[in-house]
Amino acid sequence: MLYHLFDYIDQTFDLPGAGVFKYISFRAGMAALVSLLITITLGKTIIDWIRKKSIGETVRELGLQGQLEKKGTPTMGGIMIMAAIVIPTLLFADIYNVYIILLLVTTLWLGGIGFLDDYIKVFRKNKEGLAGKFKIVGQVSIGIIVGITLYFHEDVVIREFQESVSIEEGVVATPSYEDVKSMKTTIPFLKNNELNYDVVFGFLGDNFTPILYIILVIFVVTAVSNGANITDGIDGLAAGTSAIIGLTIAIYAYISGNVTFSQYLNVMFIPYSGELVIFCSAFVGACVGFLWYNSYPAQVFMGDTGSLMIGGVIAVLSLTLRKELLLPVLCGIFLIELLSVIIQVSYFKYTKKKFGEGKRVFLMSPLHHHYQKMNIPEAKITVRFWILGILFAIMALATLKLR
Fold first, then answer.
1. CA-CA distance, 128 to 2, in Å (whole number)?
2. Phi and psi at residue 253, in whole multiples of 5°?
C-alpha cells in the first residue's frame, strides 16, 4: 500500500525522497524491520492474550526429557508469524503482483487450516485435532490454485535474451529479449540446467500437461508443508530452519529479478519476481522475531497455525522462482525429518507383518526425538540442526554458476 502511495506521490508531486520506494533493497529492508518489530513488540501482548484464553499446549507422555515442563505453554503463536508476514508485505510490496497475491493467499489459506487444527486441539480438547483427510484436502486445494495460476496466468513468464547481457565501462547493455509463456524450470548442479515440463509431460498430449503439472505442484506443496509441520517438535527448530531457508530463497529471488545478476550467475530471469524479495524479507523477519519467544525454553509454540503455513509458503516461493527441484537440498532438514517418520512407520509395519513384532530403526521419530531419547539437550539438538540447515543452504547457493 505504501509502495503504491509513494509511487503516486513521486509521479504526481515529485516529492524528494518518495522515489526511494522504487528500490527493492529499501523496501525489503523495511519489510524485515517492520516484521521483526511486529513479532518482538506485539509478541508479548499476543502471548498474554493467548495465555488469558488458556490456549496452552496439551502434552502426550512420550518419555522425553523436559517434555512435561512444556505443558500449558501458550500455543497458536503462528498467528504472530502470519501477522508479521502479511502486514509488511501489504505495506511495502506491489500488491497487484501475481506472485505476491499468490503468496498472501497461501499464507492465509494454510495458516487458516493450521488455526482450525489448533482450535480443535485446544478448545475442543481433542488431541488429534483436525482430521488428517481434511488437512490434505486443504493442502490439495491450495496446490490446485497455485498450479492453475502458475500454468495459465499471463504474467507468469520467463525472459529469453537473444544474447548475454554485457557490461562495458559501467554501462549495462541489455540485448533484445522476449517474455514467453514457458513451463521451464531449473535442474540444480547441471550445466544445461533447464527442464521444460511441456516437453516432459507432452507425450500424453497438450490436454494432460497442465493436469500433470498441477499434480506436481500439489505434491510439492503438501510434502514441504507436512515436512515443516513434523520439524516443529522442539523449541526453535522449525522457526530457525525456516529463517535460513527463507534467506536463501530471498537471494535467489533478488538474482532472478535482476537482469544483470541473473545473466552473470546463469539464473533464469523471471519478470516481476523481484517483488518476492520483499515477501521473503518479511518471512525471515517473522521467523527470527518469533525465535525471540520460541527459543529454548520456549514461551510460545507456533502450532500448526505456523508450521503448516511456513512449509506451504516455502514450497510456493520455490515454485514461483522455478527452483522446486532444489527443494530436497534447500529443505534438507524437512526432508530428513519427513523420511525418518516414513522409514520408522514402514519398517515397523513390515517387521510386524513378517515377524509378528514391530521393530524400530530409530529410538523415536521424527529424528529430533531420536536424539532426545539419547539424552542430548534440546538446545544442542536445535543448534546442530541449524548448522546442518546452513550447510544445506550453502549447497543450494553453490548451484549458482559464473558464466
1. 42
2. -65, -40
What pLDDT sits at residue 75?
83
Count the residues in the chain.
403
281-309: per-residue pLDDT in tens?
Answer: 999 999 999 999 999 888 899 989 999 99
The predicted model gives 55-79 an average pLDDT of: 68
Place of cell 505456523: 306
Alpha carbon dihedral 75, 329, 201, 142, in 10-degree steps, equals 10
User: Whole-model pTM?
Assistant: 0.92
What three-state secondary structure class fits 390? helix
Q: In angstroms, rounded to a whole number, what is the distance separating the alpha carbons of residues 293 and 3?
A: 31
Q: What is the Cα gyration radius of the chain?
A: 22
Distances (CA, A) of 313 to 75, 82, 105, 254, 293: 20, 11, 10, 17, 22
Enter the C-alpha cell of residue 70.
512444556
SS3 194: strand
Phi then psi for 286, rounded to 5 degrees?
A: -65, -45
Exposed / middle / buried, residue 313 (Cβ in 10 Å: 0-12, 13-18, 19+): buried
